[in-house]
Amino acid sequence: MRLGLPFLLALPFLLGPAAGDWGDLETLSPDPSPSSFPSYDFSPGFSSGSGSSSVSQSFSNFTGSKDDRGTCQCSITLPDTTFPVERVERLEYTAHILSEKFKIELSKVKEYVHLISVYEKKLVNLTVRVEIMEKDTIQYSELDFELIKIEVKEMQKLIIRLKESFVGSSEIVDQLEVEIRNLTLVVEKLETLDKNNVLSIRREIVALKDRLKECEASKSEMVPATPPPPAPGSCSHGGVVNVSRPAVVQLNWQGFSYKYGAWGRDYSPQHPGTGLYWVAPLNTDGRYLEYYRLYNTLDDLLLYKHAQHYRIAYGQGSGTAVYNNNMYVNWYNTGNIAKVNLSTNKVAVTETLPNAAYNNRFSYANVAWQDIDFAVDENGLWVIYSTEANTGNMVISKLNDTSLVVLNTWYTKQYKPSVSNAFMVCGVLYATRTLSTRTEEIFYYYDTNTGKEGRLEIAMHKMQENVHSINYHPFDHKLYVYNDGYLLNYDVIFKREPQQDV
């Protein structure tokens, strides 16, 4: 490498020694001859002392000359180890790469900071919602839990992404992860604290929203004024002319899988307004009546509290009825009928029902094992069934509720398997049939007082497809309907008694 004299004079500043270390160079004459240039050693290490330069490692081949115009030239060969150019270039390239990576990571951190602020607001909202659910369990539904679970899972995913993006884990991220895990445990615990079976009920009620909307819309419809009801337990009316929209009481205590069964309220002529409520779902086979429950009040039934739980091992079908503190059932696998004392859960009386078909011979349409169906009205205890001699048509018998002896029998012309269910009101049989998945119709009646029978067109709206039992209560003037596991009731609307000519 060839350097001019000005560069040579500036070289000490480039190499970094103190100014006094280059005193000998300042004595060079402006016009030296080639022979007058001394040889100098240049190295990174100089020692300052008496003005002379001491060298630990010398630069090699330092020579000088003068060109034709009198300009001095010098030539210096620098060792490779003097300045690591290649290492500096590599360092500069590495620094550039790291800078680009840092920019990318910084943008990610900014994005995560934004997401954390968003989820922090969601976490506050979830905390408020959880506090509300802790205070009042009636105000939540399964859908609320599902939404909370989804949001918590989103936050868990964010935490995982944050931890993967950092080397190690920051204290804030760890704390958030712990809080989200705790929130998940709280939600799961709340979901299991369903003491009143609220979720089980509301899960099924969600499927009924459309029907409930129809009920709400029906309020605005012009409905003709209904006559005042007769006195409780009285038959001073002209018969059933309509029924109200159904009131959904609740799902039976066994759950949605127990679609078959019966329910109602005990009627006692001596104490007509104080009867207990009973619920008797069949086992999932739709045949075997094994368990039933009694409730002193409707509130107890609604809240599943203070229930008297009993087991019997001989009931069959959903034709059960309760009258005067006794339950009446079809004895399993026979044509016999039985009376069970509800105070003791003991069989008081069994009796053979004369000529009655049984074991699914002439059951109702869409309802198996209900060949024998008990009914209660203002006049007492009845049983509805069929016989081979009457070719499957409906037979009505009035029973002595104490001995189960048949007091009187009436034969109708209505084929029982074409009927979906039936009930008695003031000695009149009313039979229903299915019009659609949401509508039944009271289409037939038989009056045991006059022997007259005929057709009716009274629509009964329902929540589910199949009606498994209908029990009438003379004091309430209500129908208690077991509808695919749901407990419904209807107000019965009567025709005014025709005025007598004076």
Automatic annotation (TrEMBL):
One MF term in the entry's GO annotations: structural molecule activity
Domain of life: Eukaryota
Location(s) in or outside the cell: Secreted
Coiled-coil region(s): 173-218
Keyword vocabulary terms for this entry: Coiled coil, Secreted, Signal
Residue ranges of every copy of the Olfactomedin-like domain listed in the record: 234-496
Keyword NADP: no
SMART domains: OLF (SM00284)
Signal peptide positions on this chain: 1-20
Entry keyword Coiled coil: yes
Any one of the GO CC terms: extracellular space
GO term, biological process aspect, one: immune response
InterPro entries tied to this protein: Olfac-like_dom, Olfactomedin-like_domain, Quinoprot_gluc/sorb_DH_b-prop
Protein name: Olfactomedin 4
Natural source organism: Equus caballus (Horse)
